[in-house]
Prior knowledge:
Blueprint: E1 10-14, H1 19-30, E2 34-39, E3 50-55, H2 61-75, E4 80-83, H3 98-126, E5 129-134, H4 146-166, E6 171-178, E7 181-182, H5 187-192, H6 196-200, E8 210-211, H7 212-223, E9 234-237, H8 246-253
Parallel strand pairs: 1-2, 1-4, 2-3, 4-5, 5-6, 6-9, 7-8
Amino acid sequence: MSNTEFQGKTVVITGAGGGLGSALVALFAERGARVVGCDQSLDTLSSEAIASRHVFDLTRREEMEAAASAIVARDGVPDILINNAGWTRAETLAALNAATIERELDLNLTGVMTFADPLTKAMAQRGSGSVVFVSSVNAIAHFGNPAYAAAKAGINAYAKALAVELGRSGVRANVVCPGSIRTAAWDHRLEKNPEVLGKLKRLYPLGRIVEAREVAEAVVFLASPRASGITGVVMPVDAGLTAGFLPFIDDILGG
């Protein structure tokens, strides 16, 4: 791809210091974008590819509102908004209680919408903009993390609302739903069970989980003019996980 694809364009990326966030920062910068990185601390935003940095917590409304205003004031209304930040620790129903439900919904749904709302409205007022949400396969089928899954399903619905209601104002909104991504976030699982990646191969038709760069490529495509006719789409990037249940073929039908 051309390294000038996003020349003159500003992209805001939340969770820019994480595993996928870092891949997104690198790829957008490679393609010529001016990257505005957002995360919870400046320490995570050390990449030289980030031109402007904003720090806030997605669970604190005042910080999000101030950050959105600061982005517009300092960096202008973004051409592209990538809502990537997210987090989960409640992996099963047994781990849920009122506090964990509230925390995960606040971060993964309420916070994302609160931050995106003023920026997408500013895009619509200008008459152009592209928004991509990083959701999850958990929003499509149940793979654990019930509160996180509910929040991500809400994000999918929100993206479609933006696509429908702001489309005539030149704003596109799409969703990428990754499966498991091979980032540092998997390290704690591998420490406990080094065989876990081998077990995952039975579930994924491609025989592996996806790399951060593969997910970033899908996000960048949907954000780009190459996807100018695409809006309201929910795209899995999951090595085939949601296409069907491979162990059923192996174990029941005999391969």
